Amino acid sequence: MAEPVTTATPARAFRLGVAGPVGTGKTSLIALLCRELADEIEMGVVTNDIYTDEDAQILRAAGVLEIDRIRAVETGACPHTAIRDDVTPNLIAVEDLERDHGPLDLVLVESGGDNLTATFSPALVDAQIFVLDVAGGGDVARKGGPGIARADLLVVNKTDLAPYVEVDVPRMLSDASQARDGGPVIGLSRHDASSVAALTDWVRRMTAEVRAGRHTPVDPGPMAPHSHAGEDGAVLVHAHDGAAEHSHTHPGVDDLQVTHTHEHEPAGRG
Ligand SMILES: Nc1nc2c(ncn2[C@@H]2O[C@H](COP(=O)(O)OP(=O)(O)O)[C@@H](O)[C@H]2O)c(=O)[nH]1
Ligand SMILES: [Mg+2]
Fold it and tell me: What would the pLDDT profile of 78-107 be if each residue is shown by its tens digit?
């Protein structure tokens, strides 16, 4: 079959999001990709931290990429908002990188570590990797969520630790594959060269597809309603569906929980 006809190579870089719970190895995976690929493709990195630029500093200290190609966005209280609803600071960081160092082939965007529900908006990234690790337990892949089920790639990281946490890696990978209807899953350890090669091959292939205009971003879906502590210690329950309207639960009189819905300015800020 003939190759599909493609239009001109897009001027901008492939934007690849890396999401997943805190500590599963997102920053390490980005360092690994820079170390493996920076000689062959032009790269940049944007990190998201809640209150610091610590991940950016770790990557700069690792010496895997020119320091100015690693930019940090400080997200404030709600890290998933910055990759889902209010993506402007991230888009500006990506565009600044491309202006200062372009043309770039690939910009990696690390989400602020969160829970299982965070996903990137397709307005920010062309594709996304969701990272789990074996230390979170063999059952996590079965628990699902939009990132696990529908990210472009699921990585099950730190397979070298499996014997210590008594996780059956082949079983976890097959559960993950089932949760994804056969979508791609890679078991990864930075100590296992063949797994590193599987990851870099996927990234190379996706970079070529996106740069050739053959990839259509797919939204894994909005995050599920969730709760976290608000500024005054009250529990906030809300969804990220792009609407300005939020449901919040507050401790009311007599310590009863009160849930009510109201509008926020600016929209979606949580
Ligand atoms: N044993 C092992 N540890 C890893 C691997 N990848 C990352 N880690 C460790 O996991 C911890 C959290 O990694 P980090 O990249 O900061 O996670 P993040 O919060 O998702 O960005 C660090 O101590 C890393 O050294 C791996 O392949 N094997
Ligand atoms: Mg990190």
Answer: 778 889 888 999 999 999 999 999 999 999
